Each structure stands twice: as structure tokens, then as C-alpha cells.
Amino acid sequence: MAEKHLAKTRKFKSEDINQILEIEEQAFPKTVFSKATILTYADRLPDTFIVVQSGKAIVGYIIFDLTGHIHSTVVKKSYRRKGFGKMLFMYALRCAEKGLWLEVRSENSEAIEFYKRLGMKIIGKIPNYYEDDHALIMRLEKSIPP
Ligand SMILES: CC(C)(COP(=O)(O)OP(=O)(O)OC[C@H]1O[C@@H](n2cnc3c(N)ncnc32)[C@H](O)[C@@H]1OP(=O)(O)O)[C@@H](O)C(=O)NCCC(=O)NCCS
Fold it and tell me: Would you tell me which CATH number, out of the four given (3.20.20.70, 3.40.50.700, 3.40.630.30, 3.40.50.720), belongs to the domain 4-141?
């Protein structure tokens, strides 16, 4: 079992791809990212595609960019509610100067609760953003010292 204090965050490496695909397929069976999509993200955002690793296992990942847009974040099912999602989110928050924002399915109440817990607020809604759901836009602004 992965222990949070033994886990480390690091940049995605190409050899992580199979574990990332497995995590994706488990989390989003209907809308899974293809291998090509993941590798395109790795190519475009090499410094901000971050995984959390414990032993040899990839436990989760986050893909964001320096505008603070979170493109995706997932923690492997058996490792949820242990603080790994927060660890990835805080990594992104440290990097993004102005804070973080994202779109989330309006029906994804677990993720919405997670983001609220980390201080994000719902600031908008995009009707029919997904084929079968609306998107909520959530944002956490970083306060910039005067
Ligand atoms: C959202 C997700 C990344 C959270 O990862 P996680 O590692 O389980 O989150 P953490 O353990 O760091 O949770 C931190 C806090 O967020 C809140 N939280 C996390 N999951 C929650 C849930 N399912 N319901 C309510 N609150 C939740 C809790 O307050 C939690 O603290 P606690 O466990 O001490 O109560 C994970 O549930 C996931 O991968 N979901 C499927 C993929 C997904 O929906 N991604 C987001 C797409 S926009």
C-alpha cells in the first residue's frame, strides 16, 4: 500500500504511459484519454505533467499549464482519500502564479467536493460543454502580495 509520506511527485516519463492509461481507463471508462492524447500532453507540457509515485506504482497524476488551467487530474481508485490528490493539486498551485482553474462535470460531485475543500469556488457554468453534461468552471485565485 502506498504511503503518502514515502511518495514523491515528479515529471511524467514515457515509461509511465501504461500505468497512466490504466488509471485513466479505470476512472473514465466512457471518455478515456487515448495514448496519443496523453503523449501529446507530455510533449506540449513536459514540465507540468506531474505524477505521484510510490515505490514502482504511479498513484495519480495532474496535467496543468502555466495559465493555471488544470487539464486533468486522477488518483487511482484504491489510493483515494489518502491525500495524493491534494499533493498533486498543491504542486500545481505552487507553480501557477495566478492560481488554478478548471472545468468539471456538473455531475462529478466527488471532484467538486474535493476542489471546494482545496479552496476552489464555482465561478461559472458552460451548458452542454460535454456531450452528456454541463461543465462548471472552478477557480482558486492566488492572492498576490502588494
Ligand atoms: C478528485 C480526486 C482526484 C481526489 O483525489 P484524492 O487523492 O482522493 O483526494 P485527497 O485524498 O487528497 O482529498 C483531500 C480532501 O478532499 C475532499 N474529498 C476528496 N474526495 C472526496 C469525495 N469523494 N467526497 C467528498 N470529499 C472529498 C476531502 O475533504 C479530502 O480530505 P479527507 O479525506 O481528509 O476528508 C479523485 O477522487 C479522483 O481521481 N476522482 C476521479 C477522477 C476525477 O473526477 N478527476 C477530476 C476531473 S475534473
Answer: 3.40.630.30
* Predicted confidence (pLDDT) at residue 3 exceeds the cutoff of 80: no
φ/ψ of residue 52, rounded to 5: -115, 130
Domain residue ranges of the chain, discontinuous segments joined by +:
4-141
The answer to whether 44 and 67 are in contact (CB under 8 A) is no
Residue whose entry in the numeric block shows the C-alpha cell 504511459: 17
Whether 78 shows a pLDDT value over 90: the answer reads yes
Summarised one tens digit per residue, pLDDT across range 83-121 is 999 999 999 999 999 999 999 999 999 999 999 999 999
Closest-lying ligand 1 atom to the alpha carbon of residue 103: 48
Tell me if residue 21 falls in helix, strand or coil.
helix
Q: Is the CB of 90 under 6 A from ligand 1?
A: no
Work out the end-to-end distance of the chain between its first and last CA atoms, rounded to an integer number of angstroms: 44
DSSP 87-128: HHHHHHHHH-TTEEEEEEETT-HHHHHHHHHTT-EEEEEEEE
Whether ligand 1 lies within 6 angstroms of the CB of 125 is answered as no
